[in-house]
Amino acid sequence: MSSMTQDHSIAATLRDDILRGQYRRGERLPSERDLAERFGVHRSTVRAAFKRLEQLGIADIRQGGARVNPIEEASLDVIEHLLALESPPNPELVDQTLETLSGFLAMAARLGTERADSAQRAAMLTLVTEMIEAPDTDTQRTEIFRALGNAFVEASGNLVLRLVQHGLRTRYSDYVLPDDRQEAVPLAVIEAPLLRLKESIESEDGTNASEALLELTSTIRKRIRNRLVAENNDASRGGPL
Amino acid sequence: MSSMTQDHSIAATLRDDILRGQYRRGERLPSERDLAERFGVHRSTVRAAFKRLEQLGIADIRQGGARVNPIEEASLDVIEHLLALESPPNPELVDQTLETLSGFLAMAARLGTERADSAQRAAMLTLVTEMIEAPDTDTQRTEIFRALGNAFVEASGNLVLRLVQHGLRTRYSDYVLPDDRQEAVPLAVIEAPLLRLKESIESEDGTNASEALLELTSTIRKRIRNRLVAENNDASRGGPL
DNA sequence: CTGCCAAACTGGTCGGACCAGATCTCCGCG
DNA sequence: CGCGGAGATCTGGTCCGACCAGTTTGGCAG
Question: Which of A23, B10, B205, B237 sits at 20 to 30 Å (Cα–Cα) from B89?
């Protein structure tokens, strides 16, 4: 963390303060000059930090004072920082992230399955097969799953979809993934949807692929939620959620 | 445009240059000092502009020189600017935007329909009914449709979904919507899916609502695509798509 | 108490400067 | 002729101090 530039770390501090709800929406942030003094840096450095907050969508800088934006107007990027705010992360937020991600992957699976050329289709099938046959650890399986998601989005040929995926890329894995000390998801639980997915890809049935993927992710989601809730039953709630 | 701050308009110029493909990915942007001289401003102003490009995800600023990022790593916000780059906008990109938006709304409809409380459900039904019964113009109908989307997302209770929606909010309407001089979409074309949607909401059938919405949007998408392709058959292709 | 004007404050821009790290150049060694 | 490395050069990061033009605020007059 210490290798960051100063404006970066100042922005991070302010960002977390805001996300933690220390400033109410619409409220004015301290002035650049005040913050410069508080952090012991030049005003220009604080300015740089402010720009970051602005582009994150959580602050609105204008003459008269920078103001805190409502969280709904923020950029997707805040999700990552919201997740990092607590450890273990807020289970609800994790679940919402996974839910949204699942939905998008389902969409991508539909479009990608329908539009893939033969090479892309072959690659997809390889990945699904790998996931069934060589699932050493959850971590590894997750890696394959991620690649599969990329393959779907790639094959969809939809740039917008791709950008959404990238915005959602949120290193949720760091917060969310079962660690290795955790027992892996039993193959039995996910084999059925994986086989269905495989068939769908082969038969170019987008709708079916989409449903198979939803089926698959819903299982995983449920496991992660249960684990997090268990870990987190003493966490205090709060923040701008 | 002239009321913008300078760093804003400089950022816009550089942004459009990049999106137009004048700099290849990975290529170095001119230095802050060079650009300051070219634009006749102080270096700090160019720096501010650079920060914007960085947070837009289209440039990577580091010692040694700022570099152009691949478009896939950009923020969702670039879509709006990509659309604005040509007039009429690139039909393919518009279609991709609408496709993603449709899928997204289908997701929201599924979740929102399943989770809405009675007040929210009533509001949804009102909107759908309005859309059937009082469709004076496409513009007006679009307004209702947008409100309906908000209602779904709101009812889903999913913050991540909400942020994606906001990111996708892209004033696509400005580029994409049928103008008033255009004949409105005949009610006959959209009445069936709207009725289906209504029933789905009443019966709390998320899957059905999702499908109804896809059915509805696919019709509209097709119309818009046809219109744009017709308008655009002489446009030159290019840019980082 | 209200309305309005001036003072204080805020962000935007400027000029100029120094640092540390990245990049480039060019010379000398193999 | 090729290659590696040292030094010059360039780049972004930060700082200082200053001025401008809008915003906000405080207090004075009505």
Answer: B10
SS (H, E, C) A142-174: HHHHHHHHHHHHHHHCCHHHHHHHHHHCCCHHH
B29 CA, D30 C1': Å apart: 61
**B164: confidence class by pLDDT, cuts 50, 70, 90:** very high
User: What is the CB neighbour count within 10 angstroms for residue B165?
Assistant: 21
- pTM score, whole prediction: 0.88
Task: Determine whether the distance from the CB of B47 to the nearest atom of strand D is below 7 Å.
Answer: yes
CB contact under 8 A, A161 and B96: yes
| Structure tokens that stand for B15 in this block | 């942004």
* One-letter identity of residue A62: R
pLDDT tens per residue across span B120-161? 999 999 999 998 887 666 677 888 899 999 999 999 999 999
pLDDT of residue A189: 77
Q: Which chain B residue has the Cα nearest residue A158?
A: B96
Amino acid identity of B83?
A: L
A158 touches chain B (CB under 8 A): yes
Interface with chain B: mutation pick from A97, A150, A163, A208, highest number of B CBs within 10 Å: A163
Measured in angstroms, the CA of B105 and the nearest CA of chain A are apart by: 10
Residue A134's contacts (CB-CB under 8 Å, 6 or more residues apart) are A140
Helix (H, G, I), strand (E, B) or coil at B13: helix
Nearest Cα residue to A83 out of A144, A198, A164, A173: A173
pLDDT of residue A102: 93
CA of A33 to C1' of C10 (A): 9
- Is residue A106 within 8 Å of residue B100, measured between CB atoms? no
Q: What residue ranges in A57-199 does DSSP mark as E strands?
A: 59-60, 67-68
**Cα–Cα distance for residue pair B161/B207, rounded to 1 Å:** 17
Average of pLDDT values for B87-95? 87
* Average pLDDT, integer, range B106-119: 96
Contact B79 A161 (CB under 8 A): no
Q: Which residues pair with A28 in a beta bridge?
A: A67
Of B73, B100, B163, the CB nearest to A161: B100
Interchain pair A76, B168: CB under 8 A:
no
Q: How does the average pLDDT of chain B come out, rounded?
A: 87
Pairing of strands A67-68, B67-68: unpaired
- What's the average model confidence in pLDDT over B153-178? 82
